[in-house]
Amino acid sequence: GQNIDQPTEMTATEGAIVQINCTYQTSGFNGLFWYQQHAGEAPTFLSYNVLDGLEEKGRFSSFLSRSKGYSYLLLKELQMKDSASYLCAVTDSNYQLIWGAGTKLIIKP
Amino acid sequence: ETGVTQTPRHLVMGMTNKKSLKCEQHLGHNAMYWYKQSAKKPLELMFVYNFKEQTENNSVPSRFSPECPNSSHLFLHLHTLQPEDSALYLCASSQEHTGPYNEQFFGPGTRLTVL
To answer: How far apart are the C-alpha atoms of B33 and A87, rounded to whole Å?
Structure first.
């Protein structure tokens, strides 16, 4: 079967750095997405990785290793507004998006 | 104007009621999706429409009936639901439902409670 694993919940301190990991086992791979979802709101696109390496976008970076079936989302200079769930999703060989259950990130002052 | 809108935002219904969820996208996309989101579970894809044609139906019970009259509008008709159907129902759209880069744009969801 197809599976995406990410931690259920993480806690970090305002101003710090946090890394949210995602491992996947899918039938084929055509890219990996990270989405952010604030409570009661729509998921919004953060990043897309299809090649190995690090993609940086402001305070957020996303890393991919296809050989390891692994990605992480790195959030720097954490702000209270970063408290949200972070969803990892992989496009498989049939171009279907396979979703993880999300990681709830709690930021403390 | 927001890209993807959904109405109603909250819905409480009894098991014998009939109701409909509405989704509208203003992005000029050709693919639309219904997802079910339950607490601490991955998003469950329910239905996909690509150029108004239903291309996916992931073993969804017949008490959920989708309708896509045009590329901008998507409905989910609900009938004789069960309490376990209580969840957040998300609508999404994308340029098309083909190709590896399939960034989806989501609406805010309808929080459904079945009594």
So the answer is: 17
